[in-house]
Amino acid sequence: MAKDMTLLWGSGSPPCWRIMIMLEEKQLKGYNQKLLSFEKMEHKSKEVMDMNPRGQLPAFKAGKHVLNESYAACFFLENQYKSQGTKLIPDSVDAQALMYQRMFEAFPLGEKIGKVLYYNYMVPEEERHDAALQRYKEALTAELQLWEGYLKNPDCCLVGKEFTLADVLVFPVVAYLFRAGLCSERYPALAKYYNSLKDRASIKASWPPTWHTTPGSDTLKTI
């Protein structure tokens, strides 16, 4: 099973991390993996391009199936290994509905994070405006307030007490927020969620190695 799987990944990338958490939760040990460097542009290497023509990480193959999109890979692994490891899709229709909703809300969250964190990389210097960056910061603040509301409950996970596919897909994004300096005091519910799951076995085992040895940033401390 796992020996037929190959993952090319980059440290700190939420999409890569999602697949690694998923593999841990489904007890798929011993898969082929290779850590590549974004800084050295190794994600544009022939090895990656042969699996992922977009030149992005992750590049993931399970047997003959190539699943480079993290959501696709996680759905595939859950469906193929339903009876193995953690069951990540709840039986309750209500819980399923909430799980799917939260999973896909990670897209606007990630997009708004990116517009703030990578503004200076994505926008040419002559086109940068403080007013535009401020609008992006305000949009991210509004988004984070939504998530604060979602997580104001006594349970540790996004869908009640059970760890689900929603947590596999959303937790790496939340961890990325705090790595980038998000203020725990300003966002106590997000901080509680982060702290309640960061020591989960699957998350701890797949924690980005570069995060152990390098400091985060304070880019989001004023958000």
From TrEMBL:
Question: Which CDD domains does the record associate with it?
Answer: GST_C_family, GST_N_family
The residues covered by the GST C-terminal domain are 94-216
Instruction: List the InterPro entries.
Output: Glutathione-S-Trfase_C-like, Glutathione-S-Trfase_C_sf, Glutathione_S-Trfase, Glutathione_S-Trfase_N, GST_C, Thioredoxin-like_sf
Q: Where is the GST N-terminal domain?
A: 3-85
Instruction: Write out the similarity annotation.
Output: Belongs to the GST superfamily.
What protein name applies here?
Glutathione S-transferase A-like
